[in-house]
Amino acid sequence: MMTAQIIPFKIERQQDGELRISDEELAAKLEYEDIRVFRRLIKKHEDNISQLGDVFSKLIAPVGGGRAARVYHLTEQQAVFMVSRSDKPAATMIMIGVSRAFVDMRRKTQREMPLPSSSA
What we know:
Blueprint: E1 3-6, E2 9-13, E3 19-22, H1 23-29, H2 35-44, H3 46-50, E4 56-60, E5 69-74, H4 76-85, H5 91-112
Antiparallel strand pairs: 1-2, 2-3, 3-5, 4-5
Helix pairs in contact: 4-5
């Protein structure tokens, strides 16, 4: 998995080849005090964000035991949609930052990845 720390967002290339950002990263930037509030918002809009691409999530067991939590990894479109639904004061600036971070990551990975061979 390729990872790049692009200030202020961490974008990761997932197994499907798609660039994604974690719900934890977005919630922190949006200043949610409780990640569960943002995850409930994602769950509420899951039908909508699934129209923007596959919804990737995984159960993560907390260190030291306890109940596992579902962590979401959102595409650029899904992330921007969820930020717009957050009703947080910083949402507009976060949307701009997320979009820039995805563009920067795409440019970086395109320079490092070999060009596909022509099948013609």
